[in-house]
Amino acid sequence: MSQVTHASELTRRRMLQGAAVALTAAAGTVVLGVTGPAGGQATAAGPEASDEFDEVFKGRRIQGRPVQGGGHHHTAGYTVLVDGEELHMMRNADGTWISVVNHYQTFPTPRALARAAVQELQGATLVPLA
Amino acid sequence: MAFRKNQASLTAKEKRDFVNAVLALKRAGRYDAFVSTHNSFIISDTDNGERVGHRSPSFLPWHRRFLLQFEQALQSVDPNVTLPYWDWTADRTASASLWDAGFLGGNGRSSDGQVTTGPFAFAAGGWTLNVRPDSRSYLRRSLGSAVAALPTRAETESVLAIQAYDAAPWNSSSEGFRNNLEGWRGVNLHNRVHVWVGGHMTTGMSPNDPVFWLHHCFIDKLWAEWQRRHPGQGYLPAAGTANVVDLGETMKPWNDTTPADMLDHTRHYTYDTGF
């Protein structure tokens, strides 16, 4: 069963049940890193989201890690830093990722998203998130 | 009544008037608000939370309203200017007249992506980016580098043939005309064009590149074309959908315009031809 299906089912459940929806899907399914209806709760799970990384790519330090709940930018349930500056990112319903510098194409993992941002930045520094 | 034309058929004077009106808005400090508004919606529109401008049914009426606001701003500078559209199924290469120095300027240079020709080149002095994702304040493009080809006419026809406007769960995973046009599913029309242009067009601050307006004007025209071909279909969802703008609900940030208000574009402007 694909993540696409899981995400769609989870979304439909939310639509039907309104705000009071448990993030736990039916037994045996994977809970995805999706944002709750209130916009604040983000549950990070799934194989990609648990994949922390800290590497130097083309001379830039990129770091990624899951975040719990929280910050107003953390709707993805995950955070990526480029040389310590946060990259705004978001998770799509099918489990793929986009960022503020690659907002119209999807990437399979946060690491791929971070590397694409480094390519796009060509040495420039991210403007801090407001 | 505004009359919107294909950019390829504009006279040299019409191109000049459009460019001058855009530069005048920038000079007056009125342009960057459009960039900020677009970005603030694109980063807050989420598949499982509130979504208004993107990845949702109101993608089309929201951008129609957004373009009308921009066109009205242009007309406050020059009443004869209207938005032109870029038919990327026809003008498919970096050598198209759209990218001439006398209109939008050309591709970015290979070293850093900086646009160095035309009125929006940094060195021309009238186009410094203030609302931007990173430290670079010059406009960037990278035509055709991240994706090889713009959508074809046949691909566009295949999307226009889709019957239903949209479908649950009303986000980037939906079936239906809107999401296939937006490009999260299927042959990918709208998103792919942003990626084909590259540079700032791939970012949430994409209106920094004036080609944004010509691209979205064509998307708007394709919506009108779909309506003409499917008179029995209409905007969905009708009512009672959490986090999504229903037919009769107002859209942020204006809070005075519903998708229903935006269905008939001929109240505001007409297009020169069908698709």
List keywords for this structure.
heterodimer; A: 130 residues; alpha+beta; protein ne1242 fold; 2 domains; four-stranded antiparallel beta sheet; two-stranded antiparallel ribbon; 2 helices; 21% helix; disordered N terminus; B: 275 residues; mainly alpha; di-copper center containing domain from catechol oxidase
The residue ranges of chain A in which pLDDT falls below 50 over 5 or more consecutive positions are: 1-47
Number of DSSP-assigned strands of chain A: 6
User: What oligomeric arrangement do these chains adopt?
Assistant: heterodimer
End-to-end C-alpha gap of chain A:
39 Å
CATH topology of the largest domain in chain A, by name, is protein ne1242 fold
Strand order of the largest sheet of chain B: 1-2
Strand composition percent of chain A: 15-25%
Give the SSE order of chain B as H and E letters. Answer: EHHHHHHHE
Pairing-aware structural class of the strands and helices of chain B?
mainly alpha
User: How large, in whole angstroms, is the Cα Rg of chain A?
Assistant: 15 Å
Number of helices of chain A: 2
How does this structure look, described?
- The complex is a heterodimer of chains A (130) and B (275).
- Chain A is globular and about 30 Å long.
- Chain A is built from 2 helices and 6 strands; from the N terminus they run H-E-E-E-E-E-E-H.
- Helix content of chain A is 21%, strand content 20%.
- The N and C termini of chain A lie far apart (39 Å).
- The longest helix of chain A is centred in the N-terminal third of the chain and has 15 residues, at 3-17.
- Residues 1-47 of chain A have low confidence and may be disordered.
- Chain A has 2 domains: 1-32; 49-121, protein ne1242 fold, CATH 3.30.1880.10.
- By secondary structure, chain A is α+β, with helices and mostly antiparallel strands.
- A 4-stranded antiparallel beta sheet of chain A has the order 1-2-3-4, with helices on one face.
- Chain B has one domain (2-91, 146-271): Orthogonal Bundle (di-copper center containing domain from catechol oxidase).
- The longest helix of chain B is centred in the N-terminal third of the chain and has 19 residues, at 59-77.
- Helix content of chain B is 32%, strand content 2%.
- Chain B is mainly α.
- In chain B, helix 1 packs across helix 3 and helix 3 (59-77) packs across helix 7 (211-229).
- Chain B has helices at 12-27, 32-44, 59-77, 153-160, 177-182, 190-197, 211-229; strands at residues 2-4, 269-271.
- Chain B is built from 7 helices and 2 strands.
- A two-stranded parallel ribbon of chain B has the order 1-2.
- The model of chain B has no long low-confidence stretch (mean pLDDT 98).
- The chains are: A alpha+beta (130), B mainly alpha (275).
